[in-house]
Amino acid sequence: MEVIEALARARLLPLLTVQGGEDLWGLARVLQEEGVGLLEITLRTPQGLEALRTLRDSGLLLGAGTVRSPKEAEAALAAGARFIVSPGLKEEVAWLAREEGVPYFPGVLTPTEVEKALELGLFVLKFFPAEPFRGAQVLRAYAEVFPEVRFLPTGGIKEEHLPLYAPLPNLLAVGGSWLLTGDIPLARARIRTARALLTPQAQG
Ligand code: 3PG
Q1: pLDDT above 70 as % of the chain
Q2: How far apart are CA 106 and CA 139, in angstroms?
Q3: What pTM, to 2 d.p., does this model score?
Q4: Considering only CA atoms, which of 129, 126, 120 is closest in space to residue 97?
Q5: What share of the chain in percent tops pLDDT 90?
Q6: Cα–Cα distance between 36 and 30 in angstroms, integer?
Q7: 161-195 residue pLDDT tens
Q8: Taking a C-beta distance cutoff of 8 angstroms, is the pair 162, 194 a contact?
Q9: 17 CB under 6 A from ligand 1?
Q10: Where would I find the beta strands (DSSP E) of 36-123?
Q11: How many independent structural domains does the chain possess?
């Protein structure tokens, strides 16, 4: 529950694909100072696991993203990940995550995929890729038929889309890589703006 509570507080899940040369500690500090206690690091590059190891004692709740197999999930957990995110629903990863007692957020798009995730006992789902599939409109429809599910829309989302997602009753947090640029002051500004757009008070 710790991860889900942190997501609910942050309303954001910043996502980083490490290329090398990033100021990881600088980004971690900005996230903490701006009240975002989580970071998803993707395993899309070989530097991902190393970055998890680097930040494992940063105080952030680290997640591993783009996890496609149980082997990758195991490596990520050993490197310090506390939650697992996949682009699609991978049953073997769901079983491993349950055994290890860590949250697993698989990507879904269709109602059938949502039903499949629910059968596996998964109630917090990544909605991916959100923007090409008009995520805010789809999630509004899902709120009616799947009221027990909370979503992490991710994929192509930028600042200008946030007002569409902010009022959704089934939004847990918005995920995205646009927040974390190599320019630390710019990353801070983007996080601040995003948080302001996503907090309930900001909607008047
Ligand atoms: C992901 O891995 O979830 C996506 O690549 C994130 O999408 P974005 O880079 O468009 O934010």
Answers
A1: 98
A2: 16
A3: 0.95
A4: 120
A5: 95
A6: 8
A7: 999 999 999 999 999 999 999 899 999 999 999 99
A8: yes
A9: no
A10: 38-42, 61-65, 83-86, 104-108
A11: 1
**Whole domain around residue 56: which residue ranges?**
2-203
Q: Is the pLDDT of residue 33 over 70?
A: yes
Atom of ligand 1 nearest to the CA of 131: 10
- What local confidence, expressed as pLDDT, does residue 200 receive? 72
Does 177 sit in the ligand 1 pocket, CB within 6 Å?
yes
The domain spanning residue 172 has which CATH number? 3.20.20.70
Contact 40, 14 (CB under 8 A): yes
Active-site residues, by number, are 40, 126
Looking from the CA of residue 107, the nearest atom of ligand 1 is 3
Instruction: Ligand 1 pocket test: pick from 177, 181, 191 the residue with the most ligand atoms within 8 Å of its Cβ.
Output: 177
Q: Is 154 in the pocket of ligand 1 (CB under 6 A)?
A: yes
Is the CA virtual torsion 145, 148, 152, 157 positive or negative?
positive
Residue 9 in contact with residue 37, Cβ under 8 Å? yes
What's the CA-to-centroid distance between 16 and ligand 1, angstroms? 9
Average pLDDT across the chain, whole number: 96
For the CA atoms of 12, 39, 81, 66, the dihedral, rounded to the nearest 10 degrees, stands at: 80
pLDDT band at 203 (very low <50, low <70, confident <90, very high): very low
Q: How far apart are CA 176 and CA 155, in angstroms?
A: 6
Residue nearest to atom 4 of ligand 1 (CA): 155
